[in-house]
Design brief:
Largest sheet: 4 strands, parallel
Bound molecules: the ligand C=CC1=C(C)c2cc3[nH]c(cc4nc(cc5[nH]c(cc1n2)c(C)c5CCC(=O)O)C(CCC(=O)O)=C4C)c(C)c3C=C, fe (ii) ion
Structural class: alpha/beta
CATH class of the largest domain: Alpha Beta
Number of helices: 11
CATH topology of the largest domain: Rossmann fold
Number of domains: 2
Length: about 350
């Protein structure tokens, strides 16, 4: 008989998840990635009988070669930034959390898959699993899709462990402090006339579908983040912006909240507005010459930050007569961000 009873407590599993990225910037790999991404019913919420033939047969074949060119611009020696920042974050969070925890990293689309990351935790017989989708603001198309995938996988396990989800962290003090610190460092280098908080867009329809008891009407309802719009993407984007502005001592007239990356569709369904590309073209006419741009919907640099905000918007701003456009780097593996993630896990 052992002198002390063995503890029944195992390690705590932590699953960090980001969106996903192609395995390489080759058209074939980009096509495979887009096929998986854009046939997800939470991303493109059309009936499956239309979605699959339309996207696999028309949209993705047309888009893949163009997207591949952009991914070629983004690619580094270490591959896609979204992937290597995620793997680096996982390592650093593991070091900080210590041996009582086991941290795994997965992507919603492509590799490393959520399935492989969950299997790592299962093999280690973790006691319970904390899932942190790396999306600060809740969207059914991003966070919701990760939650659905995790539940689909574990529902097939014979023993289903206790699982908790950190569904959003739009107002998390550590997340806000990381971006504010990065922003202040840029502001110390030069004077800016205006700040833009540019979030990934989603169709307006997605916000309305998630509206509880019809509370959200894409108007002032989103101005205050409260129990009625707890999971409203738009309300959370405004709340993040307000908190960032407060942390950087910005008055309301010194910043604008905008939405980027809308998928142009012939159906012309509206996405969240105002659109970043339209707003920035009006800045020079208003005497705004120096703009500091944040992309707070992303905690790791990726195609949407480095290329869209850092290069494409910069070019558009300059063509419209603007002076200096500067992207604030994302949280990536900033020590404050690693600490913020560790705190969120500890609090869970
Ligand atoms: C912030 C979280 C994200 C939400 C919400 C989201 C919604 C969403 N996205 C598309 C279409 C595309 N997004 C693409 C890239 C992309 N999207 C996110 C995050 C969210 N998307 C990230 C982190 C990335 C970058 C990935 C990388 O590899 O760096 C792309 C691919 C690029 C391109 O071809 O333009 C598409 C397409 C839709 C339709 C959508 C809807 C609800
Ligand atoms: Fe996206
Ligand atoms: Fe609202």
């Amino acid at each position: 008989m052992p002198s002390t009873p063995a503890s029944t407590k195992g390690r705590i599993g932590v699953l960090l998840v980001n969106l996903g990225t192609p395995d390489s910037p080759k058209t074939a790999d980009v096509r495979r990635y887009l096929n998986e991404f854009l046939t997800d019913g939470r991303v493109v919420d059309m009936p499956a009988a239309i979605r699959y033939p339309l996207f696999r047969g028309v949209v993705v074949p047309l888009r893949a070669p163009k997207s591949a060119k952009v991914y070629q611009q983004l690619w580094t020696e270490r591959g896609s930034p979204l992937l290597f920042h995620g793997l680096d974050l996982k390592k650093m969070v593991q070091e900080q959390l210590g041996n009582d925890y086991l941290v795994a990293f997965g992507m919603r689309y492509q590799n490393p898959s959520i399935e492989s990351a969950l299997q790592e935790l299962r093999d280690a017989a973790v006691d319970r699993i904390i899932v942190l989708p790396l999306f600060p603001q809740y969207a059914a198309a991003s966070t919701g899709s990760v939650q659905e995938k995790v539940m689909e996988i574990v529902s097939k396990w014979w023993v289903v462990p206790s699982i908790s989800f950190i569904s959003s962290f739009a107002d998390d003090p550590g997340y806000i402090n990381t971006f504010a610190t990065l922003g202040k460092a840029e502001m110390a280098k030069r004077n800016y006339d205006h700040v833009v908080f540019s979030y990934h867009g989603i169709p307006e329809r997605h916000v309305l579908k998630g509206s509880q008891n019809g509370y959200c009407k894409l108007a002032n309802c989103c101005n205050h983040y409260n129990k009625n719009n707890r999971y409203c993407y738009r309300a959370q984007c405004y709340e993040t912006s307000r908190l960032l502005a407060k942390a950087m001592d910005l008055a309301p007239e010194q910043y604008t909240v905008t939405f980027q990356s809308r998928l142009q569709s012939r159906l012309r369904d509206p996405w969240l507005q105002p659109y970043t590309d339209e707003v920035l073209k009006e800045f020079p006419g208003k005497g705004i010459q120096n703009v500091l741009a944040f992309s707070p919907a992303f905690v790791a640099d990726c195609l949407e930050t480095t290329i869209e905000v850092g290069e494409e918007f910069k070019e558009m701003f300059e063509e419209a007569g603007g002076g200096h456009w500067q992207l604030v780097a994302s949280c990536n593996t900033h020590p404050l961000w690693v600490e913020a993630v560790v705190d969120m896990i500890h609090r869970n």
